[in-house]
Specification:
Major capsid protein gp5 fold; 7-stranded mixed sheet; 6-stranded mixed sheet; 6 helices
Length: 365
């Protein structure tokens, strides 16, 4: 009887393990659930460079027509409206990482496969890079200059044009470079340094009245926004009363669960819950100010908040997996690489689908 074997360095092994790494890495990422090829997706996946050469994808936004139109038998010719288009682009580049065994004798001493451990280690590494790149890019963390942590694209700061601001502050948070003092004297309205439901209300309102407006994503036939909050902001939110009463958002979510509304309650499907049409998620990867790490860039997102792209070699959900033997075939080395890019979408110098909600992560004490 003949066995079908896939040896180290065989072409089939490389392909299988490359696909396996991509599949398992994306499954481990927090943001993969928000990726899709639809324009209603939060992270818009672009595949143009899966089929052709190049290192940049350009994509356009068509603004709504705003002309008055012509009534009756008045002449339309010569009164046409010009289409207004704005363009953005995402760059792709290669990112690689590798591990190497200590040698055959070193491998003999442990009860596990170096190849399997390399796969798991690289899977976790890639998941962390993709997740952190999304949050750094969407937040506009310009102090992060390492492209491996920003999706191979240079981050741009949240836009703040009049009428189209994409950054909101608590009542005591007034600039992205300020130093915040949180003490027991911060009471009443001054508690705006911490995260409160009112910041979500402000973000929702801004998303609806801005030009262009921030479109919600489509979730099971309904349109919703998504907010990503730092764990400390979540802790503050759970204890923050709605308006001037004593009932909190968390009280409402708990009451729904106790009343039997468990299946539909977002708190049981990976989300914290929902408030005013905003699905709330928690992430430890929310970045902070370089000058004051307690100040966090909580995120409010709509459709096409970010763009994700890969190159030709990665078009079939496959990373490049390479195995090499060193030192007279005594040591096994494994590398994994992907040509990819991720960035926040920006049209006409305005963030298209993101609003940053700055808050202080420490409660007054």
């Amino acid at each position: 009887m003949a066995d079908t074997l896939f040896a180290v360095n065989s072409a089939q092994t490389v392909k299988i393990w490359g696909k396996r790494l991509m599949r398992e890495a994306l499954k481990e990422t927090f943001v993969s659930r928000f990726m899709g090829s639809s324009k209603d997706s939060l992270i818009y996946v672009k595949d143009e460079l899966n089929k052709s050469a190049g290192d940049q994808i350009k994509y356009s936004l068509r603004m709504q027509l705003a002309g008055d139109g012509i009534t009756g038998d008045s002449t339309l010719e010569g009164n046409e409206e010009e289409l207004s288009l704005f363009q953005d682009s995402v760059l792709i580049d290669q990112l690689r990482h590798a591990v190497r065994s200590g040698g055959r004798m070193s491998e003999q001493r442990v009860p596990f496969s170096v190849r399997e451990e390399a796969l798991d280690g690289l899977k976790d590494w890639w998941a962390a890079r993709i997740d952190q790149s999304f949050f750094n890019a969407a937040a506009g963390l310009t102090t992060e200059t390492r492209l491996a942590y920003t999706g191979n694209n240079t981050p741009t700061a949240p836009t703040s044009a009049a009428g189209n601001t994409r950054i909101l502050y608590g009542s005591q948070v007034t600039s992205t470079t300020a130093s915040f003092t949180v003490t027991s004297s911060n009471s009443g309205s001054a508690k705006g340094v911490i995260f409160q439901l009112g910041m979500l209300d402000k973000a929702i309102n801004q998303a609806k009245i801005a030009t262009p407006l921030i479109r919600p994503i489509k979730v099971d036939g309904q349109y919703k926004y998504v907010a990503f909050l730092h764990p400390n902001a979540v802790r503050q939110l759970k204890g923050a009363p709605i308006n001037t009463g004593t009932i909190t958002w968390y009280d409402i979510m708990r009451a729904r669960a106790e009343g039997g509304d468990v299946k539909m309650n977002p708190i049981y499907n990976g989300a914290l819950g929902e408030y005013n049409g905003v699905i709330l998620h928690e992430s430890t990867r929310i970045p902070g100010l370089s000058t004051d790490g307690n100040v966090k860039f909580n995120l409010f997102c709509g459709a096409q908040a970010a763009c994700f792209a890969t190159g030709r070699e990665d078009r079939d959900q496959q990373m490049k997996w390479v195995e090499e033997l060193f030192d007279y075939e005594n040591k096994l080395g494994v590398s994994a690489s992907m040509i990819w890019g991720l960035k926040k979408t920006v049209f006409n110098s305005i963030d298209f689908g993101t609003i940053v909600m700055m808050s202080h992560s420490r409660d007054p004490s």
